[in-house]
User: What shape does this take?
Amino acid sequence: MTTTPSAPLVLTQRRIWLIFSALLAGMLLSSLDQTIVSTAMPTIVGDLGGVAHMTWVTTAYLLATTIAMPIYGKFGDIFGRRNLFLIAIALFTLASLGAALSTNFWEFVVFRGIQGLGGGGLMILSQAIIADIVPARERGKYLAPMGAVFGVSSIGGPLLGGLFTDHLSWEWCFWINIPVGVIAFAIAWKTLSLPRKHNTSRVDYLGIVLLSAATTCLILFTDWGGKQYEWTSPTILGLMAAFVAAVIAFIVVENRAEQPVIPLALFRNRAFVLATTIGLVLGLAMFSALAFMPTFLQMASGTSASVSGLLMIPMIVGLIGTLTVSMRHITKTGRYKIFPILGAVVTALGMLWMTTLAGNTPIWLICAMLFVLGAGLGFIMQVIVLVVQNAVDPHDVGTATSTNNYFREVGASLGVAIFGSIFTSRLVEGLGSAFAANPAQAATSGLDPASLVPAQVKAVGEPLHTAIVDSYASALAPVFWYLIPAVLVALVLAFWLPEIPLSDEAGMIARGEAVADESALAGLAPVSVTDESDPVLAVPSPGSDGDRPTDGRHAAR
Assistant: This one.
């Protein structure tokens, strides 16, 4: 059992913006690193000699993030979230230092994985803390800016990555995290005042180990199968057997655990199951596109790293635009079901359009494709988080949020691994044919197909240049066909998603850890803070609409 402070905290308008600033700083740190590497990745893997293993740069980060998410979610529910948030920032910042100092490819991959352990915590804890202090009905006001931070970093990240790669060195993609991490840690240390909890129940360590083992086996199975090992090889069959065994053991353990890391009761909640499944299949499509589009733009379209980063702006403009529209509508009306449906339709159309990509596709047309894809994703991703948080008991909000994100990241990891495996195998075959068809030029150029970087491809003469560009184009564009069925599955699930009235009660109030600011509810000035040592939180007044139910979620039940 978990105990909470005897004196509940007072939620005031002043403190929420301080807490929100800490959350935004942490999310900026995490989301910036997910995108800054994308434009620098061809140069990184070329310099470190890892072109054939390129997918590991992204897979390592996503795998570590996926494993860490349920741990942060459960530990945040039973121990409190403040210290975990600070640990996540510190872990991420130190791993960035290690990545910048890496001297070989696999050392770099290890530090990318450690970064993922910190990044997963920053993402989950930020979403859970917002649910703690802001009612679901008002949460769109905050989820939209948090989504916009991801969007801005998705623009700034590739741009910075390209600028660093073109004018400094790729190591600066990680050096930049050091001052950002220090600032984020300082802001969180000063402003993130949350209640501490004392857990008296047995922690589900065995469940954590089994879940981590199952996740690792699944990702390695998809990443290695048909690439490093034949699908029928003992290694691949062994990984699948280990995955099945770990899943079965995990289910058994969770049924008996006092504090299960992923309570199986969540899967009896229809809204949770449907929303989580939608997140999984869309994570597969979204992260696959984000991970390899900059590579396509650099190699197949002949653009520099900087320009390829700028070319991702239309996608983020579309994402931010539809995210803002959807969240404003939800806050105003309390209705959300239409947006996952609309988002799945638009995303599917964007994916279909992107199957026509070729080396000679005009830049403006590629930008239009990316805008449509981003617009579709903006209608869905934050809405899914809101649906899950609104559908579960307030005591499980961290666990539910992390479980939802866990399955989305599973989809992302699977998507990047499968998508990257297909792309890489086709690319290696295409480059081999390109070099074999031009043996004299290949010999005089001194190029190694396993260590190509964009500058080398741009400098090499014809006809080898065209052959290399065509290899990248023919390897990447057709693979989008594999992503369309996943988006169509999400569309079908979205039609079945129940629309539960959004709660007017913040999570901490529902759990008895906080009380609403009565002066704010009465339309008066917020309560003044005279003792900064006392943790005081703030929240927008949930009582502005007098006809709302006290708790729409429970009223629906």
